[in-house]
Amino acid sequence: MSGSTDVAVVGAGPYGLSATAFLRHQGTSTHTFGEVMGSWRHQMPQGMILRSKERASSIAHPVPGHTITSWARAHDIALDNPASLEHFLAYGEWISERIVPDLDHRRVEQVAREGSGFSVHLDDGDRMHAERVVLSVGLLNMERSVPELENLPQGTVSHVAHHEDLSVFAGKRVLVLGLGQSALENAAILADLGVDVSVTARSKAVHWLGPHRPGTPTFRQKWRVPPTDVGGRATGWIAATPETYRRLPARAQLEVRKRCLFPAGSHNLRARLEHVPFHLGSAIRSAEYTGGEIVVTLKDGSTLKADHIMAGSGYDYDVARYDLLDKELLGEVELLDGFPKLGKGFESSVPGLHFLGAPAVRSFGPVNRFVTGTWYAGPEIARRIAGKRGPTMRVAFPVGSHSIA
């Protein structure tokens, strides 16, 4: 056994890094496991552009000077707005070196009860005792399958989260399913690479997000929508203040989630997809592999042919699919449609077991699907573990000395 710690953080993406930063800043013994920006590195395609603007793309840190803008200035880099995946990964590496230079790269296999805390079992057979565990592993294993495609041969269908290098599809016909950011982003990158790509979806039209307007915004423009870049005027501000979201009735919470997380694409993808064929307004009825190709039949009777289908079908969240909690511990976690029911400090029904990021969407709102949510999650979990009370109104974006322009 390799010792013990007050808090074990599982995951070194934006939420894991931010939680570690705030916990260590207040003096809490914290041991963090994972690969820096692992999900961003392996579940996002090379050449991707972030959906959120620069002002909403910084990982929360208790000390000023750790934003993505600070990183760009320190390295004399002209940062695009929104930033490229390449720049965001480099920023993540930079901030991780400042937050957790002793990052433990071993893989956590399982978390189980042990006395008043937990036993963290590692892939090398070792284990560590932790009084608290913070799970921050994103949407690992949560990809939603498409029933109509399940009978196709292995290797002919994939989820958008399964690719780093899309150049492997050179010379193939790829049909992208869906109109969300990931689907449209992958289609645009494929088109840029010269791949024969087309898009299909049951929706009748693409919903494009508004363009970024360079220059210094007026006060009214700056605050018309929240700096989180999540949602519109009303729902966006509710999502930007998770405590407000938590006080809403379940039906109103559902409406906020729907309006903030519906399929949409960044405006900067529009021109790149101008010559890509879109087949909209009809769902898939069936798909079969015949004569060395996939033949997709839509419900309107039309057919589409491809060598590969890439599904931007979203995610179905279920804590059990993480395969990280042993059966006894998993059975103690109170769930809401697969999501853990979380209280203050993102603590589950199991005392000392916390969930950050996507698992917190049901309890703390849609902002937890985005990097900007770390500005609420990081300080909130640190306060809870330290037993401190925070301000009544806490927001999911930097304030004070941090610029939000």
Automatic annotation (TrEMBL):
Q: Which domain of life is it from?
A: Bacteria
> Which keywords fit this entry according to its UniProt record?
Oxidoreductase
- Protein biosynthesis among keywords: no
Does the record carry Oxidoreductase as a key word?
yes
| All copies of domain FAD/NAD(P)-binding, residue ranges | 6-203
Q: Name one Pfam family in it.
A: Pyr_redox_2
Protein name from the UniProt record:
NAD(P)-binding domain-containing protein
Q: Which organism is it from?
A: Actinomycetospora endophytica
